[in-house]
Amino acid sequence: MDPTDIPPDEGHAQPHLRSFSRSLPMRLLIAREAVMARFRPLMRSHGVTEQQWRILRAIAERGELDMQGLAQETFLLLPSLSRTVPLLERQGYLERHAAKQDQRRTIVRLTARGRRLLAAVGPHSEQQYAEIAQFIGPDALEQLYDLLDRLAKLPKPTGNGADANDDDPS
To answer: N or C, which end of the chain has less CB nearby within 10 Å?
Structure first.
């Protein structure tokens, strides 16, 4: 049998696919994991998860956010936020209140305890950034930020049935 006649379900890559090692979604995941391996122990040592940390950081940056804005800033779905925000509130890191203009909207902001947590973690987090910059070089790190910003502005595909909620295309 000619090797080109082997069906794709027998473990052979399709000729029209780029090498898996050059899959951009996979390369980004691998890089993310390498970076997060430096930050996860820091978060864990302060009793917060990655999602909780993203929420705290986003609110610290913006001052206060409604739940929709928080979802957009953190790339977390509203159902996840609906579970995580009350937990952070019970832990004393956040407080919630209804928006003055629209009582249906919930506004979230840091408490003094939340600000203290960020102040405690901040120097350790910055040390990790310094080590990353030392490893790849400060100029390369700035270039990486610029490239990621450009990539984030990539127009969404149209007309091919692509859905933002589809699974990873790698």
So the answer is: N
